[in-house]
Every structure is written in C-alpha cells, then in structure tokens.
Amino acid sequence: MIGSQANSAYTRLAESAATSIVPFRGSPKRVTICEPVRGWRDPVMERMKQLVQLERGWDGYRGAPVGFDIAHFALRMLDAACGVDAPTPQLVPGSDGDLQIEWHTERGDIELDVRAPNDVLAWRRTASTGPDGEEVALTNDFSLVASWIAELLEPSCATGTAAA
Amino acid sequence: MPLEPPPRDRAGKVVPHDHTGVGPSDGVIRRISENQLVTDKNGQRRISSKAFQASSGPNAGMSVDLECSIIGAGLDVATYVTTPRWIGSVRFEAGALRQEGYQVGFDPIPENPHHGEVWGDFGRSRRRRLQQLCVWFVPIPGVLAESA
Question: Domains in chain A: how many in total?
Fold first, then answer.
C-alpha cells in the first residue's frame, strides 16, 4: 500500500517535470507543444518505479528501496543530460536507497553514482581515459555528463579524425 | 565454535575491527541480487560495481555473511545465504581482503546472527579490485562476477 502510494506520487511528479502546461487565452486556435520522444525515458521510468518499491532488505541485508527524492532527482538529471537519441541507461540500486546509472557501450562506459540529490560521482572509461577511467564529483551542472553521453553516440571514425 | 562477541562503542554499535576468529582462508560471502546485475557492451551480464559498496553512516561497512560462523552453527552455508530468496552470492577469502587493507569483522544482527562487515576504502577503483578478488559462491547462471 505504501509502495503503491509512493509509486503514484512518483509518477505524478515525474510527469509534471516532463511537461509544461501554459493556459492560452488568445486565439481559439489550438497550439500544442509536444515533448520530444526520448526512447530511453519510458524504460527508465518503468525501472524507477520498480526501484522505489523495492522491499526493505532487498539485497539480503538491510537494503532500502531507492529514495523518492533520489529517483526524482536522477530523472531530472537524465532529462538535462540525455538527448533524444541517448542510449537507454541501466539503473542499479544501492543499499542506502541511492542509485547508480550506467551505460556500457562500444564507445565506453559511464557510471553516475547518485548518492543524494545534488551529490553525484560521475565516472567514465573510454579509449582516451585509460583503464582506470576518470571520475568527477558533480552537484547541479551536468553538461559534462551530456558531453560524455554525446560522445557515446559519435561514429567511430570521428574519434580517429579527432585523434589524427 | 561461536565467534567471540565484537567490540562495541558506547552506543552499542559494533566498531570496525579485524575479528581474530575469522581466519585467513575463511570465506566472506556477499549476497548478490538480480537488481545488481548489468549488461555489458557485448551483451554479457555482470555484477555492477554498485554491489560492492559500504553502507553510509558511522561504523558502516559492506554487509557480508561469515562462513565460519555459519559452519560453527552447524548450518549449510550455501543454503543459509540463499534463504529465503537471495539468488546468488560471491565469496572472498578473509586473508585476501586483509591484504588489500580491509578489516573483516563480526556484526551479528537480530535477523542474521552470522552477519559481518568489511571495513575500508570502497572508492570506485577499490570496488573493481574487490570484483577481481571474488568468485561465485552461489552462481547466477550466465552472469560473470568481474566488472565490465
């Protein structure tokens, strides 16, 4: 019951974050503004709903479900950093109700450890970073993550040209 | 033989320690949930680095089950760590963890009298090192233990 209420509240908030409704009182003509279709968003929303409803102890110890505030923040962060064509990330819960967002592609690996709202450890490993990768602490500016994700989508030949 | 009670602070919380009753070749088992698996670039399922992380808060470490304690209670280890529904687990040797600078301690809790903690550095590179050190104990079919 509690999980269901949390889920409904989460869905309402997530949807309100994705859509803006502005009253229009001028011409009777209808003007609609459509959200761009982001292929990654529906699977991410579905996974988030599962993770906020995890049972306490889901990890075999004392693991907490993903916090509502963390899920909401993570979704807003993804909205800011991921374009329409971004690959769908994988979401892994942490024992403390935190969350890790991961991409593993031919072009590289990205892991965003969302420890709390505005507390993210961003890590990536590509051919240019070496095997240990690079890690940056982020708060509310995710332009770096957006550039990392954009690089995942670049054709392989672009890297060769840039390197040359 | 049961493990000696662990050291506690004034609030009654177990403090980080290296328990002398846990020998170097004793198993330290970490349960793995289906929720902690990811798929790599080749479509191979693996354990996420997020599965090897300490809890937050004072004295908090990474929760584990202590093999020697379970055996000492006359229980089957694989059955114990898979009951009631936990689908997989990996095993470290306590000595290998200590060589990496970790402490392996005993922290019995009401729902798990064989519960232990591993204390130390769980930064990202260290978590990947932990993944190299562990082997499947109760494997999840088709899933690799090491990081992507």
Answer: 1
Residue B84 touches chain A, beta carbons under 8 Å:
no
Nearest alpha carbon to residue A74 among A129, A112, A33:
A112
Whether chain A has a CB inside 8 Å of the CB on B33: the answer is yes
CA distances from A93 to A115, A161, B49 (A): 10, 38, 11
Tell me the two tokens of residue B127.
């978590």
Cβ atoms within 10 Å of A114's Cβ, excluding its own? 24
Please say whether the dihedral angle defined by the alpha carbons of residues A133, B125, A114 and B45, taken in this order, is positive or negative: positive
Residues in chain A closer than 8 A to B40 (CB atoms): 104
Q: What is the pTM of this model?
A: 0.85
Q: How far apart are the CA of B16 and the nearest CA of chain A, in angstroms? A: 18
- Name every chain B residue with its beta carbon within 8 A of the beta carbon of A113: 50, 124
CA dist B140 and B34 (Å) reads 9
List the single best residue of B14, B30, B36 to mutate versus A (max A Cβ within 10 A).
B36
Q: Quick check: ipTM above 0.90? A: yes
CB contact under 8 A, B49 and A100: yes
A104: containing domain: 2-163
Q: Are strands B115-119 and B62-66 parallel, antiparallel or unpaired?
A: antiparallel
pLDDT by residue for chain A (164 residues), tens only, comes to 455 555 565 665 555 555 556 665 666 677 777 767 888 999 999 999 999 999 999 999 999 999 999 999 999 999 999 999 999 999 999 999 999 999 999 999 999 999 999 999 999 999 999 888 999 999 999 999 999 999 998 876 544 444 33
